Every structure is written in C-alpha cells, then in structure tokens.
Amino acid sequence: MTNTEELLYEFLLIPRTYEEETEKLEAETKNFNQLLTCNENWNNFFEHSFDNTQIKTFFNNIDEEEKQNYFKFGLACITYFVQGNFTGPNLPKEIDNYFNSHKFETSKFSKLLSVNNEDININTKYPVLLVTAKLIFEHCVINETVNDWWNWRVIWVHQQILEDLSPSLLSEADRLYKQFHINPELNKYIKSALDVEVAQLYLTFRQISRAKEHILMALEMLGIRYDLLGALGKRTRYQEKELAQLALKVTVEEEREEDETINIEENDLPKDIPIGDDVLLNSIDFLEDLGIKSKLGRLEQKLFVTIVSDMIISKPQDGLQKEQMMPFIDLVLSQKNTFTIKIACLLMRCKLETKNSKILERALKQSEEILQCLNKEKPSPLSRIIDAFGTGMPPIWKIEMQYANILISLGLVRSALITYTKLKLWEEVIICYTFLQLKHKAAEVIQEQIDQNPTPKLFCLLGDATDDVSCYEKAWELSKRRSHRAQRHWGKYLFSHKKYEECIPHFEKALSINPLHPPTWFRLGYAALKIENWQTAATAYRRYTCFEPECFIAWNNLAQACIKIGNKRGAHQAILEALKCNYDNWKVWENLLVISCDISNFSEVIRAYHRLLDLQEKYLNVEVLNVLVYNVCNDINDSEGQTAHRFLQKTRELLGRVTSLYPTEGYIWELYANLSPSILLKAQRLQRAYRGYTQGSWDKNPTTCQQVLYVCVKLAEIVLDDDIDPRDTIVNSVKLNLSSAITAVKKQDFEETRDLVGQVSVHLDKIVQKLKNDGAKSNS
Question: How many CA within 13 A on the CB side of residue 130?
C-alpha cells in the first residue's frame, strides 16, 4: 500500500474492515472531543481573525507534526458540523454549550459563509465549525490528494446549507477538479469512492453530463454491469397470473478482496415501513430469482444511490420515473446497509411515493421513522458520517421539509404549517396560508420577522404575500443592488400578471447575478416566446435544458425559437432531444419531418414519415414527399454531403406505404412513378395517377385539367419510346386515356389548357400512327 493510500485511509475516515472501523471510531470520538474544545487551537484562529491570508501564513510556519494535529482538528470540526446538521444525533451537551457561548456568535460566522450575496440557511448550526474546517483543509497541507478530497467535501457541504445554487462554489469546484492530485497507483476502490463523491457534487449543481461521466467511470472500475429488463412477477396479493414487470439485473465481476462487512445492529437503523395495504405487496414478487452474483459493499451501494439521484434529476417526473428507479432502491435496501445509505434510499423512495395516493401514508410514516432515528444515540455519530458525502445526505431541516411536503399532499395543511414555521420556511408558510385562505396572516408573520431583522429575502416574501411591487424594490436596494432573489421575485410577479415584456429585464438581471436557477431560465424563455423575442427565447431554453435535459416542453420550445431565428440545424437537434422525452407525440414528429426536409436530412425524413404513419394511421404531406422524391431522383447531396440516391429503395418503400393508404391521390402516384425501376411499371403508376386525378367533376377545375394533361404527356412519351412494342396492351390503354382527356377538356375550353390540349393531341396522333404502322407490318 502506498503512503498516499495510508494517509487516505487515516484522514478520510475510510474503514477497511469492521474491526478496524470499530476501534478507529471509538478512538477518534475521544480524540475529536478533546480537539474540539481545545482553547489553544481556537485562540490561534481568533488571533488571526479567521482571515485566509493570515491563516495561510500561520500554517506555513509550523512543522509537519503540528500540521497533522491541526488537520485532525479540522476533521473534528467538519465531523461535528455534519453530525449537528446532517446525520444527527445532537452534539454532546458540553460541546453544544461550548459553541453556544458568546465567543462563537453564529451571525458572524454565517456571514463568512455567505456566497453570492446569499446567506446560509437560518437552521444551520455551528457555522464556525465549517468555516474552520474550510480554512484548515485549504491551507494546512499534509497530502495534496487528502487535502483536495476534503476541500471537495467542504464545497458539497457548503452548497447543501445554501438555499440557492452558488456560481462561486461551482467555479471553486471546477478549479479544484482541475488540480486534483490523483496518484495512478491508488487502488480502484479509492478511485471509485472519489468518483462517487465527485458525481454527487456535480448532481447537486445539476451538472448532469459531468456527473454521468464519473458514474460510468466508477461502474467500469468496480466491474459492475446492470440492466433493466422485463420479468414475470406479481404486484398484488390476489394476483393469479404473473405479468411482465420492470426488474434490475446486476452482475459484479469480482468479489471484494477486503472484508467490508457492515455489522450494524438492525435496531439501530430506521425500519423499512411496510405499505400496509390489503392488496398491494411491499415489493414485486418475481417468478424467478434475479439476484446478483455477490453482495454489494457500501461503496457499490453508494454508487447505486448516486445513480438514482441522477435519475431523479434527469428523468421527466412521470409515472415511468418511479418504475425505473424503484428496482435500484429495492436492490440497495435488500442489502446490509449502513445508517446513512439506508436513510438516503428511504428518503428517495418517500419522494417518489408522494405522487401515489395509495402509498402516500407509508411515505409519511417512513419520514417520521427517519426523523426519530436521526435523534437516536446509536449507531455512533462517526459511523454515520463516513457515508454522508457519497450518498448526497440532505441536511436535517430538508428532511423535515420533505416530511411537511408529504403532509401537504395528504391535505394536512395546518400540521405542515407548524413544521414550516418552526423551520422559518416563509415561502412555504405563504403557500399554507394561501391554501387556508389566510394570506393576510402570512404577511403579518413575515412583517414580524422584518421588524426583528430586515433582509432582502424577507422583503421579497412580503411582496409575494401582499402583491406589493415596492417590497421587491426595497429588497433590491437593501441588498445594494446585488440580490438575484429580489430581481427574480420581481420578475416572477410581473410574469404571473402576464406582463411578459416587463418581466424579461428582471429575469435577465437575476440570471446575470446567479445563472444556476433553472425555473428562472424557463420563465424567461416562455416570456420571450410570448413576445416573439426569438433569440432570447432560444438562449433561455438552451440554458434550461442543461439543467433539465429530459424536459420535453423546453426542447420543443427551443426548436420553435431556433426555427424563427433561422437556425434549422439547431432546431433539428432540439426536436430529436424532445422526442427522447416524448416519443409518441405526433406533432413533434411532424416538426422533425419538416425541419429534416429543410436541411436535406433525408434519412430522418423517411424515419419521421414512417413514425407519423404509425401514430396517425393516415398522414399525408405532399410537399415533403415532393422534395424527397425530387432529391433522390436527381441524386442531390444530402446534409452529410452524400448522394441522396442511396435512399432510393427506402423512398420506394415509403411511397408504396403512402399510396396503399391513399389509392386515389393522383399526385402521390405521379411521384411514385418517378421511382419506378422499369418503364412499364412507371406507365402503370402514371395511369393510377390519371385515375386518381379524374375522380368526380375533375374537368370543371382548370388546375386539375392541367395535371391530367401533364400525366397524359408523360404517358405518351413512354409508349412512343422505341423500346415499347406497339402490340403491348399499355399502348392502347394510354391511347384511350389521352383520347378521353382531350374530349373532356375541350368541352370546357379553358384558356390555361389550350396549349396542353394541342400538345397531347399531337402525342395522340403519334400513338395512333405507331399503331397503324404496326398493323401495316403485320398485314404485309
């Protein structure tokens, strides 16, 4: 094992075996308690005013042994911060009293953690611990990999306690990622653990494509393969016949060499609450065992939790989303879990179950069980923290908020209001009072908070509660014109009143300060679309799709905006993405058909047309078919620079399908004739076109008369060809067609058809002469 690996195991709280974990946690707990209340350590930070420059100089002037002691002090700080705010239970009373003294005044350190003019959540406890850990991991360097990794974790924790995504923290993460010092000799389990935590942070910032890269890298290194497949099973107790259900099959290439047994008492973990329904089973009862080759260790479990987190963010929120995710959640819950992994899985399941009224009550009971377990003394606090960074464990107040959201779904608005008020979630308080038709009460509560401590956020919320625009102006001025929230709420107010042109500058200002707010991009795009500001709409929807890559509406609207600004290739790509989200929407397929035709992507034209016929049963777009046939017949280059003639056979198949659905459409038969492999087949199809055109009172319409005469000219040219035997029945048949057409059109005597009638008459005389000549030869 390399020296770096030893340091990683020692300073990253990564256990190798259960025995080592138990001994290590017991020793570290005592050590952390002593370190955390060491006045000498704290005095050094207070003497240097928690200033980056001064702290950096201080650490540069101490020896390696002292650096390691301070680094462990940093570990104690971040550990207890995570315990107090994420994993529970409450900190020991003596430590809690120590940090609640005047010396560690919360407001001072909360301001040090303020980013982009946005304060940390008001429920955050012991902010001094995060400030101190951040300074230590950044400036007290004991090993570049260890320091980089802890700095990454600090960024994740810091973002979790902010109410909005921070562009500054994302930039910091990007900078840190570029300088990550990863020793290539490190074992694959350490590398995979890092990939999981990197993915979790990028998912927090909704950087989905970057997160997926690291998920795939971890899967490859751990040799994990998984597939979603159909398998027979039962969902209900009284189901007699097994039906196809979505199942997850997982294989792991090799067993873990290290003993990573998770030996936590089942009573110390939150209970998996059953559904408690007389009909529904707790999980699908499959006919066959679809188990994996080996049990999943804690790292593999965290990886699957990360995969589900990615799916929650990137998949559209519909019925299929839950069906796709539950196999992953069931797989992890079927394993021997750690405390944090089990809670993360159960929380995700609760979130999915809030959309199903039949099991909503289970989600409520499960949330209550989780909140109770967070306050239990066992398992030990350090054993919980080990997995917090790789599971995306939310802060405790977010778990309470999710619990209150479930209460709202059940109609228990007053109960939810109590929780929201306790957490000082004033936006949700406004929603509850609005439900209760007591919106004025919300304004009173928020005004009370403003009287105590006026902030831009509170003025924004007062504006939401009272519909008073001046509140947003006060918020903007109070923030010294730096609050994206003030501009966002201001724009949202105007947007809700359909003042689209007025709201756009406010949304743009808000996004220039903080571009990491997807709903604002969406509203900006919609407002711009309504006033036909196509360029702004295209930009807004393009940015929104970076955060929500599975949003059908955004992709569809982006395509519309791209068409309007003349960016047809951009529109084509947007429509393809829209189809991934909604494959059965015929209108989007029609848009793809038209755009593909415009950019000469004939492969997509054919695919889209077939799909439209599948969806609509009957669909006709003569203009598109005309362009397709013309380009294929004239061998014009397509969008890829290759000749369109390569699509000849597929175009024939498409026209064959269309003509079978529209047997009386003359023009379609005329197009189909152009694709004929033989001259006689072409003549037959032109005759079908002739019959199609000559339906009903065709001779009363000069345009139709012209079309009939044009077909007659083409037919005549075919039968007058030297290769056509005069004795062939097609010659006489065409002669009759021409004769009938001339007779009918002459009766109407349209000015537009006179020249054509003369031309067809000449061809008819030639056909008659050809037949006479053949007859003379036969007689001789």
Answer: 30
* 265 shares a domain with 313: yes
230 and 135 fall within a common domain: no
For residues 337 and 209, membership in a common domain is answered with: yes
pLDDT > 90 in the chain, percent: 55
Find tokens 């340091």 and name the residue.
Answer: 7
- 488-491: long-range contacts (C-beta < 8 A, 24 or more apart)? 488/517, 488/520, 489/460, 489/461, 489/463, 489/464, 490/463, 491/520, 491/523, 491/524
Does the residue 226 lie in any domain? yes
Spatial separation of the C-alpha atoms in residues 500 and 528, rounded to whole Å: 7
Residue 176's nearest CA partner among 190, 156, 204, 206 is: 156
Instruction: Mention every residue, 6+ apart, whose C-beta is less than 8 A from residue 566.
Output: none
> 235 φ, ψ to 5°?
-105, -25
**DSSP 8-state symbol, 637:** B
Note whether residue 113 is domain-resident: yes
* 636 part of a folded domain: no
- Nearest by Cα to 172 from 199, 153, 190, 192: 153
Q: Is the pLDDT of residue 555 over 60?
A: yes
* Average pLDDT estimate for 584-592: 91
* Rounded alpha-carbon distances, angstroms, from residue 774 to 477, 495, 680: 99, 81, 19
Residue ranges in 533-584 assigned as alpha helix (H): 534-547, 552-564, 568-581
pLDDT in tens, 729-760: 888 888 898 999 999 988 888 888 888 888 88
CA atoms within 13 A on the CB side of 98: 16
Is it the case that residue 104 has pLDDT exceeding 90?
no
Taking phi over 0 as left and psi of -120 to 50 as alpha, with beta for the rest, 62 belongs to beta
Q: Which of 152, 167, 186 is the last residue of a domain?
A: 186
Supply the DSSP string of 143-193, one letter for each residue. Answer: -HHHHHHHHHHHHHHHHHTBSS--HHHHHHHHHHHHT----TTS-HHHHHH
Q: Which residues contact 30 (CB under 8 A, 6 or more apart)?
A: none
Read off the pLDDT of residues 53-75 as tens digits, 9 standing for 90 and up: 999 999 999 998 899 889 988 98
SS3 232: strand
Q: Which of 366, 393, 420 is the last residue of a domain?
A: 393
Element housing 550 (H / E): none
Burial 41-62 (b: 16+ CB within 10 A, else e): bbebbeebebeeeebeebbeee
Indicate if 259 and 116 belong to the same structural domain. no
Q: How far lies 379's CA from each of 35, 76, 148, 264, 269, in Å? A: 22, 18, 29, 7, 8
- In 3D, which of 334, 244, 324, 343 has the Cα closest to residue 282? 334
State the DSSP H helix or E strand holding residue 228, giving kind and residue range, or none if neither: strand 224-236
Based on the number of CB atoms within 10 Å of its own CB, is 312 exposed (0-12), middle (13-18) or buried (19 or more)? middle
What are the tokens at 132?
């101190």
Q: Residue with structure tokens 């529209």?
A: 662
Which residues constitute the domain of residue 712? 695-780
- Which carries the bigger pLDDT value, residue 6 or residue 525? 525
Are 149 and 192 contained in the same domain? no
Beta bridge partners of 229: 247
Question: Are 102 and 200 within one domain?
Answer: no
Cα–Cα distance for residue pair 263/17, rounded to 1 Å: 10
Cis peptide before 379 (omega within 30 of 0): yes
Q: What six digits make up the tokens of 661?
A: 């659905």
Taking the CA atoms of 64, 66, 72 and 77 in sequence, report the sign of the dihedral they define.
negative
Ramachandran quadrant class, 738 (left: phi over 0; alpha: psi -120 to 50; beta: rest)? alpha
Does 219 reside within a domain? yes
**What's the domain count of the chain?**
3
Task: Inform me whether the pLDDT recorded for 26 exceeds 70.
Answer: no
User: In terms of Cα–Cα distance, which of 703, 624, 694 is closest to 658?
Assistant: 624
Euclidean distance between CA atoms 752 and 755, whole angstroms: 7
